[in-house]
Structures are given as structure tokens and as C-alpha cells.
Amino acid sequence: MRDFYGTTLKSSLMLGTANYPSPEVLAETFREANASVATVSLRRERGDGPEFWDLVSSLGVHVLPNTAGCYSAQEAITTAHMAREYFQTDWIKLEVIGNRRTLQPDPFGLLEAAKALCQEGFKVFPYTTEDQVLAERLVEAGCRVLMPWASPIGSGRGIMNPYALEQLRLAFPDIPLVVDAGLGLPSHAAQAMEMGYDAVLLNTAVAESQNPVNMGRAFAKATEAGRLAAASGPIGVRKKAKPSTPEQGKAEL
What we know:
Blueprint: E1 3-4, E2 7-8, E3 13-16, H1 23-33, E4 37-41, H2 42-48, H3 50-57, E5 62-66, H4 73-87, E6 91-94, H5 107-119, E7 123-128, H6 132-141, E8 147-148, H7 162-171, E9 178-180, H8 186-194, E10 199-202, H9 204-207, H10 212-231
Parallel strand pairs: 3-4, 3-10, 4-5, 6-7, 7-8, 9-10
Antiparallel strand pairs: 1-2
Helix pairs in contact: 1-10, 4-5, 5-6, 8-10
């Protein structure tokens, strides 16, 4: 497993904590999925009260607060400060949304907030697009993890631009990369891991499925399968067929 700001995670699956049918289902899903990280919104925590934080604390996973719902750099920075104080962690999933319909990150606000938070000692996990130039600027700002989207949050569309994600992986071989947002099926997670990504983060596909616990299990197996496939050296795509049966020993007629 890749090192995330000095922390080695137990699995490559990160899960959100919103929209589960009950706290009991949330807890069981995390256990069965062997998730390593729980993302938590400061706004959700303050709305649901201390019992929700007690539940998240009992999961035995790393907590990654996020700045979900922020539409400016200053709003995200302020939320990050509040989250660090509340959750007692320097980890922050940085979201600065630029479009209300697609929930696409605002590249300018994201970079501005990332620079400020990295300078203040935050360990920033930026939710970004697959744009390589923006990724370079985020790394220059001090980000040691990148979290490019697969497709819009909650869309379930899977990986819209596999070429761009593959190029991002090639461009940043030493930076942990997490595919975040838009995954809808376990096969989408396997595809991301097969590309050599270090983890996937999702919420809606599990929490809003008809059976979150089973779906969590499915994503866990798919993520592990994709990781093993990438590590095993897949053959890649060929332009023509290659017979698997040798010519030697062929009957002569």
C-alpha cells in the first residue's frame, strides 16, 4: 500500500458516511467492506450531534474531514480550520465547487485554498478534475495526494476519461492517487485500480444501493482484485490476435 502523508492504510477502499439508511447499516458496511478511511462533513457532524461522531470514532478507521459544499476558497479554508479543531486531525479533503450542476471543482479556488492550507500544515487531499496542469500546480503547492474525479459526484457514470486518468498516473508515479467521485459499480473501482491508482473513494454507490452492506463487500473485492491485477503485470491491449496454443505438436495431415 502507498504511504499517505506518513500513514499506510489497511485497504484501498475509502467510504463516505452520508445517506445510509441507519447508523447500524453504516457501521456494518464499514466493517464488511474493510474500509480504511471515512470521509466526514463538518456540516453533517454538527447537524447530527455528538452521537454521530461517536459512531465514526468506533469504526476504527482514519477520519478524513471534508469541505463539502464550499463554493469559494475562503469558505473552504474556514471550514478546514473548524474541521481541524473539531476532529483533531490535519487531514482535510479539500473541495471547492465551481459548478452547482456538475459539482465540478473550481480549479482556481481549489489551488488558492490548497496553497494556504499546505502552508498552515494541513495534509491536503484535493478533490480535483483529471487536468494534469492543475495537478502539477497542486503538487507544487504542497499536496502529497491527488484525488481526481471519475465523473460528477453521485452520478454513477464511472470513469468518463480513462485516457486522462492513465496519463495522470504516468505523470505522477510517486504521488498517491485516489479516484474520487462518480463510481457507480464495483467494476468501475476495479478499472481504476487496474490503472495503478492507489485507492478509490465513494459514497453514493454504496450508501444509496438497495443493500449497502453487500455493495460494500462487492466494492472491497473489486478494489482488491484491481490492485492485484495491476501488481501482476497485465498483458495490455494488442492490435492482433495471438494464439495461446503452440504450433509444436500440431498434427500433420
